[in-house]
Specification:
Layout: H1 2-9, H2 21-29, E1 38-43, H3 48-61, E2 66-69, E3 81-83, E4 86-87, H4 90-104, H5 111-124, E5 130-134, E6 151-154, H6 162-165, H7 169-176, E7 185-188, H8 195-203, E8 207-210, E9 215-220, E10 223-228, E11 231-235, H9 245-258, H10 267-276, E12 284-288, E13 291-295, H11 301-312, E14 319-323, H12 331-335, E15 344-348, H13 360-371, E16 376-379, H14 382-394, E17 398-402, H15 405-420
Parallel strand pairs: 1-5, 1-6, 2-5, 6-7, 7-8, 13-17, 14-15, 14-17, 15-16
Antiparallel strand pairs: 2-3, 3-4, 9-10, 10-11, 12-13
Helix pairs in contact: 3-9, 3-10, 4-5, 7-8
Amino acid sequence: MQQWLDYQLGAHPRSIELGLARVGEVWRRLGAPRPAPLVITVAGTNGKGSTVAFLEAMLAAGGYRTGAYTSPHILAYNERVRIAGADAGDHALTEAFARIDSARGGVALTYFEFGTLAALLLFADAALDVAVLEVGLGGRLDAVNLVDADVAIVTGIALDHQDWLGSDRDSIGREKAGVARPGRPLIVAEADPPTGLLQAAAAHDAVVMRAGIDFSMERDGNAWRWRCGDAMAPVPSPQLAAGCQPANAAAAITALHCLRDRLPLPMQAIAHGVATAAVPARLQRVRIGAGELVIDVAHNPQAARVLADWLAQQADRPNLAVFGALSDKDLAGMLQPLQPHIAEWHLVDLAAETERGRDLLALETDFSTALGPVRRRCWGEVATALDTLAPRLHDGARVIAFGSFYIAAAALRWLQRTTAT
């Protein structure tokens, strides 16, 4: 498996190469497999993984066999391809990689394109009822967009990956709207979407359904009430704790409501799915002694604000942050919302993890520019920082590990090692 992944990293001169021509050619050589009779595509800046989890959980509760393709993974590549709730095995993935490599001939594919085609092949062979496909980057030119979605969802739009998608929300929204199809529903999860998204959706002749206009999720005591036209469903509060999760759940419910004639779901399945959906490293809380470790993949300003809003409601103990970021991220935009809630910062070098990672010198410089003379320490890796903080955790502190998927993965590996000993 690792040999195949290393091979894919060198199979294309660039790690990211947006466009459907090359990957589409290989897909057609493979027989243009459709992954399932019904396909739901999920695009957006933040909230995609959680929305996929809500869809998976509701569909599973309704008895449907579902495949889900997500990225990036946290601990193991296999997490990217799930069939009926189980990660794909090494053998199945490497067999798919071999088929793709044979079919591509001289066509260069990126690591992500290999993975997308592998997911489509495995799903097509798995006798699924539904495939849920998460866009990797953007939408219009992402490999996932090879497949025509029966329903598409666009979650929140924020500034991220500007080098690829544009420098403002309108431009980014136009790219995300590329997953829409003529005459088919496009669920817009954000109550205040960028104009560019709506303009592009109209140009695609999609049936746009907007949060707050065509559907809503309203607080009902300690639970929620979803509405769409004359349809209504009482739903429990999600176990996914961030304040944005009811909106993600509402978008997922609305997408399934649009498919109700071909994919009927009882209210009990919707409620069960909302209540049980879980995703690693999304405000994942782990009790350690008298304290807790919180692991979150927040890696852009919008996600950092969501994390800050949650921390504002958790005034029971001091918060210590273990933080690192990639070099292309808006560091000030990520740090400033959280500064009022963090008593102490522990900065981690990510240059050894990825060529895109900020090294400690750059991180310290940018940190000082953003926050000034704030209390901080620097570490070469997450595990060393957490080892040092472990006694304070046991004494009642809260440690928040965030800033990148790499930070979240390292924190989860540390947790596995710690709990195993």
